[in-house]
Design brief:
alpha+beta, 263 residues, 10 strands
């Protein structure tokens, strides 16, 4: 595992997963029961101030298994998440209504609630998910808790990992960059580089083209769009292709074609 500075960072790895077709409805049913059980548990934890695992287990474990049909491990993860939600809400001095979970998601403990085995993920309750997409860059860091989410017709498993904080980087020097219309200036106390930009030339061409267009245009008849001589004069104002290089700063090419509608 790579070494770093003091402390750790929390990473979230998104794993795209898909259940077997014959298990999809059963898994969705479990996630709906989990959502209902979680909302029930949050209300019960807050009402009874059951903010420890022992109190919450005694208060909720039996109901979650019998009333909502949750597997043993899923029931434990459910009231663990309910405690976390309740504590967060109670600590908020500006808390509003009691929190309610609406989406389909499940909190899963590593090794007990889920296991990643090759190209499959095994969940508590006997469900098996096929891994579709997985960022393998962080495989060296151990898996921790995860959240299974169903959104817009797709399943995703968000796995949390802890990684060492990278060591502090000591810069070798300082380089300042100033970008303006006329120049880009790069430098420091020892060196300076100035790069001219074609913005001023582009603005000059634009002013010349606008004068030409005003001279040969009226609200009813735009001569500069229909007379080839005027269009050639317009195009000759840009011998170096500045307009094309800087985003058509004078007028888009479609406006110079006789068949195009007025811009």
């Amino acid at each position: 595992m790579p070494s770093g500075g003091e402390g750790e960072l929390t990473l979230t790895v998104r794993v795209r997963v898909s259940p077997e077709p014959e298990q999809q409805q059963a898994l969705l049913g479990l996630m709906r029961r989990y959502r209902d059980a979680l909302n029930y548990s949050v209300r019960a934890v807050i009402a009874n101030r059951a903010l420890s695992l022992g109190k919450a287990h005694k208060l909720l474990y039996k109901d979650l298994k019998e009333r909502y049909g949750l597997p043993s491990r899923v029931a434990q993860d459910c009231y663990r998440e309910a405690i976390a939600i309740a504590k967060s809400w109670l600590r908020n001095p500006r808390r509003g209504d009691m929190p309610t979970v609406k989406g389909l998601r499940m909190w899963l403990t590593h090794e007990y609630g889920y296991r990643v085995k090759g190209d499959h993920v095994e969940l508590a309750g006997g469900h098996r998910l096929r891994v579709i997409g997985y960022d393998r860059r962080y495989d060296d860091f151990p898996n921790r808790e995860a959240r299974l989410v169903f959104r817009e017709g797709e399943f995703a498993l968000y796995i949390f990992k802890r990684a060492p904080r990278p060591a502090k980087y000591a810069p070798k020097g300082v380089l300042a960059v100033d970008v303006n219309e006329g120049q880009i200036v790069v430098g420091n106390s020892g060196v300076e580089q100035r790069i001219e930009t074609p913005v001023e030339r582009a603005l000059r061409y634009r002013r010349l083209a606008e004068r030409l267009q005003e001279k040969y245009s009226s609200p009813k008849y735009r001569a500069w769009l229909r007379r080839s001589g005027i269009r050639r004069a317009d195009n000759q104002l840009d011998p170096a292709g500045v307009r094309g290089a800087w985003g058509g700063i004078i007028s888009p090419p479609a406006c110079r074609r006789p068949s195009a509608p007025p811009c």
